[in-house]
Amino acid sequence: MSHSSAHAAHHPALQHHFDTLEQQQNASTLGMWMFLVTEVLFFGGFFMAYILYRWMYNASFHEASHELNVWLGLFNTAVLIGSSLTMALAVRASKTGEKSALVFFLIATLVLGSIFLGVKVVEYSEKFTHHLVPGKHFAFHDANLKNGAEIYFSLYFGMTGLHATHMILGGFVLVPLIVMAMKGRFTPEWYTPIELFGLYWHFVDIVWIFLFPLLYLM
Amino acid sequence: MHDVRTEPAPSASQAPTTPEVHYINATHGAMSWFFTKDHKRIALLYLYAVSAFFLVGGIFAMLIRLELATPRGDLLTAETYNKVFTAHGVVMVFFFLIPVVPTILGNFLVPIMIGAKDLAFPRLNLASWYVYMAGGLFGVAALVSGGVDTGWTFYTPYSTAASNTHVVLTGLGAFIAGFSSIFTGINFIVTIHTMRAPGMTWDRLPLFIWSHYAASLIMILGTPVVAVTLLMVVLERTLGLGFFNPALGGDPVLYQHLFWFYSHPAVYIMVLPAMGVISELVSAFSRKPVFGYKMVAIASLGIALVGFLVWGHHMFTTSQSVLAAMVFSILSFLVAIPSAIKVFNWTATLYRGSVELASPMLYALGFIGLFTIGGLTGLFLAAIGLDIHVHDTYFVVAHFHYVMVGGTVTAYLGGLHFWWPKMTGKLYSEGWAKVAAVLVFVGFNLTFFPQFVLGYLGMPRRYHAYPVEELSWQVLNILSSAGASILGIGFLLPAFYLTYSALKGQPAGPNPWGAYGLEWETTSPPPTANFEVTPIVTKPAYYYAPEEH
Ligand code: HEM
Ligand SMILES: [Cu+2]
Predict the structure, then answer these.
(1) Are B250 and A153 contacting, i.e. CB atoms less than 8 angstroms apart?
(2) A3 in contact with B, Cβ within 8 Å
(3) ipTM of the complex
(4) In CA terms, which of A29, A58, B467, B518 is 20 to 30 Å from B25?
(5) Is the peptide bond between B540 and the residue preceding it cis, with omega within 30 degrees of 0?
(6) pLDDT for A39-50, tens place per residue?
(7) Angstroms from A43 CA to nearest CA on chain B
(8) pLDDT band for position B319 (50/70/90)?
């Protein structure tokens, strides 16, 4: 068996166990996609439960969904799509090496994400005051539909809570990315973290695109 | 058909040496281990942690067997007994069986076998060990603060609405450990896709790699589902959300669907990597390529995929419709086909091979026998009528121990013995290793074969006492408990002679078995970067019969 040693041009971001930046980039991207597959299945458990209970308690779900504020939901959907756009622009700026644009779009993404979460807080506290949080104090105007409505709100809090957790985690990742971008770490040669974070952020947005109609509109 | 190369492989004849600098002594100090990113060191970290959990799970197993040695519930109260078998199940499944082969042998060997310097994400690999330990801490915290009595399956509504034990802590422990498994799966798949050495094409991958690839697919597709299911149980207990509680309109059967969607494939997370080990062992000790290499590789993927479609066979006694039950039954029979392909192909590999009964091979032969019994009795359980008769009896307990212990644990021990010289650079006492292998085989059969009979006679699982009048039950239980003691000794022995060898053993040299594979081309123990220079692969896997290719 013959041997060869591959020594590629060395980039500061190239880790020792990879031969080329391209190989490293392929590995990171594939890894991110695999991670997103696990995320789909993670949310999948909730979606499965939603489908089943929707079928069992159609009337309750219909009635309970009227308790949500469609306008706030719609506003948040727009905010989130906006953040997806700014994130996509950030990825583009990193590819072209426009440092200040990159920083700007990353900050814009963070701001929009925070607005989304702020609105969520308003919505949650409304549910508390209206006794729509499952548990001892849960109350629903139609006693016949109460069981189904309670399941509906269990799902509502479970699914939107999991989604919001993903947003919060995303925010925590964005901050160091912004700092790194300010320091000029990303170049057209190497912008993998920005690109991968973009994938994550779009994924979180897409989940919301499913949650919004299922919970608010149907 | 295959000519057999009988003379020892060239490297075996070289005088055994241990390199001056290798991954174990390259850097020093505790911190260099706890913050290592070297997959080989992480494998050793896992070796210690997983072995510790195996010991804990084993102690609970012995408690179970002690209690059942007499018909009366004289050693443990019913409540304590419930906690003991739950602890045994949780520890064994989530903290031993699922991680054992991938995180120890897989971590060590996947990069080396494909000629890579490390896994694709070394930091994620280290993180997954810490995550595993964190999950384990939650589990241990639940144990010391009073335990849990739901069984490792956490069935609702008992676990969500009735049990007043530490379901949340234990559930979180399993949830967290699940992420460790997801990380490992992602790391393996990405590494196998992107980091193969030049010439290591997909059709030259060792079957060990194929089976880890297939198992990783299950890890990333199944684990998130059980994770979110456990999360729902935790939310239900802590916040009063009502997903599975019938009093609030929830459906407990949904829980079972979600739980078994993962937990049936989880059996293959345990068994597929084990099968990969067996392919390597059978080939190395028959000095022949694995018969039907491609079929075995495809069978791994087949098992992984079909394994996702059979979860309903755990639910024949629920409200599931008859049609669904029939579909699940038929699909369950289908999974047997790829498994049988493997067993037949190993047997065909042995046929006319120059078989050497070294200690790893003894474990491999044990595996083939025990797994076959486990698999065949699985077919009994997949038949709806029979399952209703033996559901939740000791027949089931015997079946899953034959598959999981007879399968996973014997393969793990066989693999650990096979690669031990590579991992440590030292040879162990072959005599003691053979004694241990025989003890495990004998002890195992004596422990679990009587349980098939017990279950068939109607003894239910999860009871701490049984009627005194059933004399045959008592005899069978005593046999089983006696077998467990032998098995226990068989498991403890390797801990001693392997540790001794690591400290005092003779140097092993790069290829003590004269086996074929990239891992045998580097030094024992390997250098930190695995190879001095990146190997270029020019030959197929299992090149034991050069004449033929
Ligand atoms: C070596 C690895 C072993 C593994 C991975 C393992 C795994 C398991 C699992 C997953 C369960 C299910 C627990 C539950 O139903 O909640 C179980 C139950 C049990 N195990 Fe083991 N086990 C092992 C060894 C043993 C040994 C050596 C013995 C006997 C000494 C033993 C005796 C039992 C018994 C009696 C039960 C109770 C079955 C029930 O009531 O559900 N196990 N084991
Ligand atoms: Cu199953």
Answers:
(1) no
(2) yes
(3) 0.91
(4) B518
(5) no
(6) 999 999 999 999
(7) 7
(8) confident
